[in-house]
Design a protein that fits this description.
The protein has 319 residues and is α/β, with parallel strands linked by helices. The protein is built from 15 helices and twelve strands.
Length: 319
Amino acid sequence: MPDNKDIQSAKRTIDKEIEALRVMENDFDESLSQALDILEKTTGKIIVTGMGKSGHIGKKIAATLASTGAPSFFVHPAEASHGDLGMLDKGDVIIAISNGGESKELSDILIFSKRFGFPIIAITKDPDSTLGKAGNIVLKLPNNGEACPLGLAPTSSTTATLVLGDVLAVALLERKGFSKTDYKQRHPGGKLGAILQKVSDLMHKGDELPLISETANMQQALLVMTSKMLGCVGIVDKENNLLGIITDGDLRRIINSNMLTQSPVDVMTKNPKVITSDALVAEAVALMNEKKITQLFAMKDNKPVGVIHLHDCLKAGVA
């Protein structure tokens, strides 16, 4: 069990950092919208730069912007002085970060930006600092001290900078109408990419689609179910409207000596649960879990175009 002093220290740190966020929240003014105007209208890239801890936070801000539809990358200010200024191009905008605003390493990239007309969004607690004066827009960080009891280690200031980066990214994606589909395109790998896949990405379609007409007999239904191996068969009318579905579970419930004499239409579950082909796979999994079923017919324009199976979702990493 942690010592109470440790818990009290943790609470003081959290309280101090929350206080910094509240101060920043109450200090927002038209500068925020002006900065977003610049970011939204830029025809180039968003270049984020900063030294030390500000640089570490800047890398995360650049990554978040890039993943939410705003082309962005981080340029280390020292490397900028040794050739990386060549990464800046027409239409780019600079986000420069320095809590105190006097990081000497930023001087070359600031001078270069001023010389060639790159807009600078300065993030600092001191608008009258070198960085503040160089900025076309200044986004002010809170000046209520660090959570570090020595008042030295960047703690509250870096938290506020990180949150300010999220503020910019979220507001920018809202302005641009950035969608889940857009987000998926930038996150094709791993769990996140799997969750953001569409049903159409995983569904069985074409020749794999288990469908029979409403005039088919039970023997035909069994043959289709067996050959397609999806544990179901859909019954459609002449216009290809889905009338119902027969699953393995349905067959187990009706199995008897007269089963083959029954009509699939009489056995099928009418108005089965379905999902649109452009829905997210995560939505399909949620529906299957809720209804305790293992497959869904995927629909487009009210016609069955595929079947998505729970096992396929699990293989793809969506559970």
